[in-house]
From TrEMBL:
Residues 30-296 form the ABC transmembrane type-1 domain. Keywords: ATP-binding, Membrane, Nucleotide-binding, Transmembrane, Transmembrane helix. This is ATP-binding cassette domain-containing protein. Residues 370-597 form the ABC transporter domain. It comes from the Bacteria. Residues 327-336 have a biased composition (Basic and acidic residues). The chain crosses the membrane at residues 26-44, 64-82, 139-160, 166-186, 252-270. It is found in: Cell membrane. Signal peptide: none annotated. GO terms for molecular function: ATP binding. Residues 327-347 are annotated as: Disordered. It holds the Pfam family ABC_tran. The keyword Oxidoreductase does not apply.
Length: 600
């Protein structure tokens, strides 16, 4: 047994004992039904031997038929025994499944709750569905087969001993050899099963990440790298499955040794057994014990224990054991040279809000700071952002421009803390954002994407969603500042009902912008959040947001957004530049090209 398996057994032993201790009644009833199964196994072989020796060979066919009738009754009673066993089995397996589901949900909720480690638990879906069902089915199979083998084997071996001790001398050696070979496979099969589950989770994690980033992957041309990574993970999963299949083949060989050699040995030793006083009836009874009871139970045990046992240990350790870090950040193949160092000049003097969750003097720390940040969607993909340094002062209004797919949305996600960099550090208000709990991030920044979110409810609920303590006067003032009055009046006032499908994309964006304006977060991130507004509405919204206490970062949709900003960051995939509108017209050919396109 490996150290990992031994550690898993040590971790799982206490909860297993507690689980079984609370179900003593079910276990007792299950044992009673199993004793009936043991008696059935004993009677079948014993009755066959008696029917031959004391009935047919003794010239008393009536006695022989009577004993065969006993054997028939024992066989038919098996249906009642199986029914009783399964009725009690549910009392053990279903509570296990419910407990594992609760544990998986509690772990995921604790990870996402305030004060938790934060981040997305991407293995949660696998644990709640596939792994819980694996544990339930594996546990049910193990309980059923272990119980059946122990009690059936006890009845069959006792029967062989009662017929003649020499029968055990012939049957036990090949039986023990097959069992020993089978036990040798348990350790590597458990390791192979662990690798197979890890490969399955890694592949699911990669698929979820790629699906969430499809737009950026297509825009940045990094799809082939992600595809290669996916192919590698598929190959790893296939290799793990092949290894598992190889050990399954060894287990099958062990099953053949234990399941067939005892019968062959009994046939070969017939003459020797007859010489030691074993009767014909005892030989037939021994064959009956092997074929009818012992070998089928052994076959079921080895099949279940070899596959279900290792799966159960691995899955239970993943669900009940200590949490491990599964979110790995891709590391680039090389250390890139810095493309630019962007330091801000003192921005406009404005009062900056503070995040109540942090005891930080906001004026003393940059509102946004990127330190040599690199982001690649794949180990071999070209970086979307390459060693980018950026410093945004509190209260500053920064516009971000660049060609489509150059990484503008990626930059806002990095600053918002919803995407982790491959290397480097992102700070907001002097604090790293990577891995920070969602509640703390929400107190620092608001990210408004291009596809604005509006929910069914009242107008006031939608506007005050990020500032639940906003009074009616503040809501009215915000509505007036953004020119949202006609829409609010049309919907029936602040208490009117919002039906998202009935709003135009521009109207949804205005609602989302007012919501962000009312938020106490000191940093607003607009990712083309005004693209559906006409130029006049966009100018009015940005002027209102710029006059709000705090810092504003806008992915610009029009030239006017860049002109209104204190500074503009130009991303071109080669050398990022930052400066005022006039400075960039002089220093950035790309910015001049974009300006010409916007003016055309």
């Amino acid at each position: 047994m490996t150290s990992a398996e031994a550690g898993a057994l040590r971790r799982l032993a206490p909860p297993a004992r507690r689980f079984l201790a609370h179900r003593k009644g079910v276990l007792v009833r299950l044992a009673l039904w199993s004793l009936a199964e043991s008696g059935q196994a004993f009677l079948v072989g014993h009755a066959v031997a008696r029917s031959v020796d004391e009935g047919f060979l003794a010239g008393d066919p009536r006695r022989g038929l009577l004993w065969l009738g006993v054997a028939l009754v024992a066989v038919l009673s098996g249906a009642r025994v199986v029914r009783g066993v399964f009725a009690q089995l549910a009392g053990v397996t279903e509570p296990l499944r419910d407990g594992l589901v609760r544990r998986a949900v509690d772990r995921s909720m604790a990870r996402a709750a305030p004060g938790g480690p934060g981040g997305t638990d991407r293995a949660a879906v696998s644990r709640l569905t596939n792994q819980v069902e694996i544990a339930r089915d594996s546990f049910a199979g193990l309980v059923l087969t272990l119980r059946s083998f122990v009690f059936t084997a006890a009845g069959a071996l006792l029967g062989l001993l009662s017929l003649h001790p020499a029968l055990l001398v012939v049957v036990l050696p090949p039986l023990a050899a097959g069992l020993a070979l089978f036990l040798v496979t348990l350790r590597p099969m458990a390791a192979a099963q662990r690798r197979a589950l890890a490969a399955d989770e890694a592949l699911g994690d990669h698929a979820a990440s790629a699906r969430a980033a499809l737009r950026d992957l297509a825009a940045c041309g990094t799809g082939p790298g992600v595809e290669r990574r996916g192919a590698d993970l598929v190959a790893d999963a296939a290799a793990a499955a092949r290894t598992l299949a190889g050990w399954a083949a060894v287990r099958t060989a062990a099953l053949g040794v234990a399941g067939h050699l005892p019968v062959l040995a009994l046939l070969i030793a017939v003459e020797w057994l007859r010489g030691h006083g074993v009767s014909v009836g005892a030989l037939l009874g021994a064959f009956t014990y092997l074929v009818q009871s012992l070998l089928p139970a052994l076959h079921t045990l080895m099949t279940a224990l070899g596959a279900a046992g290792s799966r159960l240990l691995v899955v239970l350790d993943r669900i009940l054991g200590p949490e491990t870090e599964t979110d790995r950040v891709p590391v680039p193949d090389r250390v890139p040279e810095p493309v630019s160092v962007l330091k801000s000049q003192p921005g406009p003097s404005t009062a900056s809000a503070s995040a109540a969750a942090f005891a930080v003097d906001m004026a003393a720390a940059p509102a946004v700071e990127l330190r040599a940040v690199t982001l690649s969607y794949g180990a071999r993909a070209e970086p979307v952002l390459d060693a980018l340094d950026l410093c945004v002062a509190p209260g500053e209004h920064l516009a971000v421009v660049g060609p489509s797919g150059i990484g503008k949305s990626t930059l806002t996600r990095l600053v918002a803390g919803t995407l982790a960099p491959s290397s480097g550090e992102v700070r907001v208000a002097g604090r790293p954002v990577t891995g920070r709990p969602a509640a703390e991030l929400a107190a620092l920044r608001v990210l408004v994407p291009q596809d604005a979110y509006v929910f069914s409810g009242t107008v006031g609920d939608n506007l005050a969603y990020l500032s639940t303590d906003a009074c009616r006067a503040e809501l009215d003032a915000a509505v007036g500042a953004f020119g949202l009055g006609p829409l609010v009046e049309r919907l029936g006032g602040l208490d009117g009902t919002v039906r998202p499908a009935e709003l135009s994309p521009g109207e949804r964006q205005l609602v989302a912008l007012v919501r962000a304006y009312l938020s106490p977060a000191p940093l607003l991130l607009l990712d083309e959040a005004t693209c559906h507004l006409d130029p006049a509405s966009e100018a009015r919204a940005e002027e209102a947001l710029a006059g709000r206490a705090g810092t504003l970062v806008v992915v610009a949709h029009r030239l006017s957004s860049a002109v209104r900003a204190d500074r503009t960051l130009v991303l071109d995939g080669v050398r990022a530049r930052c400066g005022t509108h006039a400075e960039l017209l002089d220093r950035s050919p790309l910015y001049r090209d974009l300006t010409g396109h916007w003016n055309s």
